[in-house]
Every structure is written in structure tokens, then in C-alpha cells.
């Protein structure tokens, strides 16, 4: 199947615009998915294990159908099963901590802290992959951590240091997942990675449900089901956006999640973001955009200096 982003008959500007639109959709659906799971906790007391199980249950068929239609069922066959298991184990831990942060923290703050994951990915890349980290990356790391310190302000507005620690742990694990995906992505398709992660999530969630799960009420079950479907849509839009536009162009759009989280947090939960949260979110966004801008400029220089 010919990808639209590579079709010679498609105007490149139109393709990039479509990619940007898909990425904006991904940013919005991520916050909706987080909001639905937070609401599910308030209807029947659904916890992280429930969220893990029901997300996989309802998202897996959709991701399978999309991946099979997009690139064929054969591409879902794993080339590195052990690598998939390791990535999935790390990813499951990350989402469990993420779900707990959704429950414990105001939505805008939980989303803001999640954006420290690229910061930890930078640190882990230097430590584990021994990648060279430029000075501007370290400056962005410092700005990002300053933003989180301001935004979280433990002890204020019923925000405990333990809740912030859980969200930060989630970000560390997400950063580790990013590092593992860099290697796994060299051998496996995006559809295969997403599919097998959901398969592992379903098995782990099913095994943990008897001991740690909660039976939600009807409203809670609907919220979990819709959240699972929205998460599948989120995954599809995120992956599809990469077929039409470069990561450097798409990444800044992800920070619109902070805006959506503030708006939905106010509309649904009646929670007005504090001035500290807004200032911290601004610093975190600035750190991420700075890294993206410098990386894009470095790539352009490298391309300009290349002599075939």
C-alpha cells in the first residue's frame, strides 16, 4: 500500500498539513483519554490495574485491525520477542504509575509532569546509550526541572510530595521506554510494537484483576470502554502523523496537551490551574521546544554540509 506522505501525486505541503492535523488530534485525544480514566476512578473506584486491563481490552481489536489493514498481518509477527517483552514490561510499569498520577493529581499538573519524560530520555540516552548530549540539551533539562519544581509545589492545593513522586516516576519510566523504542524501532514496525504492548497489557491486567481490580459501576465501565477506544484512536493518529511530517515539526504540537488539560480540567472537574502550574508548564514547554528547535537546526546544517 502506498503511503500518502510519499505519494508523488500528493502536494508535500498538503501532506505536512495533514500530519500536523493528525498530531493535533493526538494531543487532544490523549487528554480526553486521561480525563475519562480520571472520571472512571470517581465512578466505581477504578484503579490503575482496571485501567490497564480495560484499555487493552477495548483498544487491542482496533489497533490490530488498523495495523493489519495498513501494512498486513505479517508485519505484526515479532522479530525480537524478548525485546518486545522487555519493552512491554517497562511500558506497563510506566502506564500504571501514569494512571495513578491521573487519579492523585489535577489533570493539568499530571499532564505537565508527563512532559519531563523527554528530559529523562535525554539523561538515560547519555547514561545507557552513551549518546553525546549537547550543551543546549542540558540547559533544557535544567529549565524543565525548574518548571516542574514550580508547577508541583508540593504541599499546596492538597498536592502531596508522594503524588508528585509517583508522576515523576512515571516520567522516568516513560523516558526509559523512549530509549528502548529507539532500538526496538530499528527492527519492528510501529504497529507491531503497539499491538504486542497491548497484548501483554491485557494478560498482565487479567492476571492482576482478581487481586487488585475493582468492578466499576455502569457509568465507570462505559468510561473505561470509551477511554480504551479513544486510546486506540490516539495511537493511530500519533503513528499516522509520522508518515506525513518530520518529528521535529510535530513535537511542539504535543505541548498543546497542557492547554487542553487546563481547559478540560476546568470544564469537567472545576479545577482552575494555579499560577504556579501555569508558570511551570510554560517553562517545561519552553525546554521541549528549545531542544526540538536546536535539533532541527543541527540536522539542517548536517544536510547542507553533506557532499554526495
From TrEMBL:
Q: Which UniProt keywords apply?
A: Membrane, Transmembrane, Transmembrane helix
Q: How does it sit in the membrane?
A: Multi-pass membrane protein
**Which parts of the sequence belong to the EamA domain?**
19-151, 165-291
Quote the cellular component terms of the Gene Ontology held in the record.
Answer: membrane
Q: Does the keyword Membrane apply?
A: yes
Q: Where are the transmembrane segments?
A: 20-40, 52-69, 135-152, 164-181, 193-215, 221-242, 254-272
Which InterPro entries does the UniProt record give? EamA_dom, EmrE-like
Entry's localization field: Membrane
Question: What does the sequence similarity comment in the record state about its family?
Answer: Belongs to the drug/metabolite transporter (DMT) superfamily. 10 TMS drug/metabolite exporter (DME) (TC 2.A.7.3) family.
**PANTHER family recorded:** ACYL-MALONYL CONDENSING ENZYME-RELATED, SOLUTE CARRIER FAMILY 35 MEMBER G1
In its UniProt entry, what is this protein called? DMT family transporter
Protein species of origin: Sphingomonas gei
Amino acid at each position: 500500500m502506498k503511503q500518502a506522505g510519499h505519494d508523488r501525486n500528493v502536494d508535500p505541503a498538503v501532506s505536512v498539513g495533514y500530519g500536523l492535523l493528525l498530531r493535533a488530534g493526538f494531543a487532544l485525544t490523549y487528554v480526553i483519554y486521561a480525563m475519562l480514566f480520571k472520571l472512571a476512578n470517581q465512578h466505581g473506584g477504578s484503579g490503575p490495574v482496571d485501567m490497564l486491563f480495560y484499555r487493552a481490552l477495548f483498544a487491542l481489536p482496533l489497533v490490530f485491525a488498523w495495523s493489519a489493514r495498513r501494512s498486513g498481518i505479517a508485519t505484526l509477527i515479532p522479530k525480537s520477542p524478548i525485546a518486545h517483552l522487555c519493552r512491554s514490561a517497562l511500558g506497563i510499569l510506566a502506564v500504571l504509575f501514569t494512571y495513578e498520577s491521573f487519579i492523585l493529581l489535577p489533570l493539568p499538573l499530571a499532564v505537565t509532569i508527563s512532559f519531563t519524560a523527554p528530559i529523562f530520555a535525554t539523561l538515560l540516552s547519555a547514561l545507557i546509550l552513551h549518546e553525546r548530549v549537547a550543551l543546549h540539551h542540558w540547559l533544557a533539562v535544567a529549565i524543565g526541572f525548574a518548571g516542574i519544581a514550580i508547577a508541583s509545589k508540593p504541599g499546596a492545593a492538597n498536592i502531596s510530595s508522594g503524588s508528585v513522586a509517583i508522576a515523576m516516576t512515571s516520567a522516568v519510566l516513560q523516558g526509559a521506554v523512549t530509549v528502548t523504542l529507539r532500538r526496538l524501532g530499528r527492527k519492528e514496525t510501529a504497529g507491531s510494537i503497539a499491538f504486542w504492548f497491548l497484548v501483554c497489557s491485557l494478560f498482565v491486567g487479567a492476571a492482576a484483576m482478581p487481586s487488585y481490580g475493582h468492578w466499576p459501576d455502569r457509568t465507570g465501565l462505559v468510561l473505561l470502554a470509551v477511554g480504551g477506544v479513544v486510546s486506540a484512536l490516539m495511537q493511530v493518529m500519533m503513528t499516522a502523523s509520522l508518515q506525513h511530517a518530520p518529528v521535529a515539526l510535530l513535537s511542539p504540537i504535543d505541548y498543546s496537551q497542557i492547554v487542553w488539560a487546563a481547559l478540560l480540567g476546568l470544564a469537567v472537574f472545576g479545577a482552575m490551574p494555579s499560577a504556579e502550574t501555569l508558570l511551570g508548564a510554560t517553562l517545561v514547554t519552553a525546554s521541549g521546544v528549545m531542544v526540538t528547535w536546536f535539533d532541527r537546526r543541527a540536522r539542517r546544517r548536517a544536510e547542507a554540509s553533506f557532499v554526495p
